[in-house]
């Protein structure tokens, strides 16, 4: 991992992953991509959730386009596919990932945020897809993830007009789930990550892996998959311990 671009720390069983290129508003070069790949492909066993954040004012201003300029079509294709793999590791990895967003989440910054499972924005945050005005098209996942969160029409609007999506509207549109005062997004994200980390690993696996796939299935297939994954999750010995504790508590309350 390129340590001068990403800061990694722990708060109990929550991993904090901080983008740390403030002079470029966290524009992401390949070195940052490789760092993120290393982090999210080797999550320690005692980590239950992660927070992805910026160490400075802005979450992320997108890819470092100096690394794309002048590349051939096939080289660009492979470069974008490498980013797809990294964001896939975030979305379908070992643990839930909460994004703490302040300032700009532009282009690939938005795309990275949509690969996370929960998004917390503070009052300074905004999302933007300026690729249209630059003669470009989104390249590292927005076409797939963003319409699933907020609809195709909103994405078309943002790309055709370049208009930003401010924090408050991002929550009302379903892009983000929590709006907090300026400067408190990381604290809120850590709070949520700590709660998620208390879930059993198999339960969190079902939530972040099975649920998105069930949503894409037809009703009959989805119900079958739901029953199957629920049966697997409830079969674990740790689940039995938690269920017994819950049922015993309910019996005590009924007396």
Strand content: 15-25%
Biggest sheet, in brief?
A: 6 strands, mixed
What is the level-2 CATH architecture name of the largest domain?
Answer: Alpha-Beta Complex
Structural class: alpha/beta
If you average the pLDDT, what whole number results? 95
Which regions contain 5 or more consecutive residues with pLDDT less than 50?
Answer: none
Number of helices: 10
**How many structurally independent domains?**
2
Give the end-to-end Cα distance, rounded to a whole number of Å: 57 Å
Basic shape: globular
Helix content: 40-55%
What is the C-alpha radius of gyration, as a whole number of Å? 19 Å
CATH level-1 class of the largest domain: Alpha Beta
Strand order of the largest sheet: 1-2-3-4-6-9
Q: In CATH terms, what is the fold-level topology of the largest domain?
A: 2-enoyl-CoA Hydratase, Chain A, domain 1
Q: What is the tally of beta strands? A: 9
What is the fourth-level CATH superfamily of the largest domain?
2-enoyl-CoA Hydratase, Chain A, domain 1
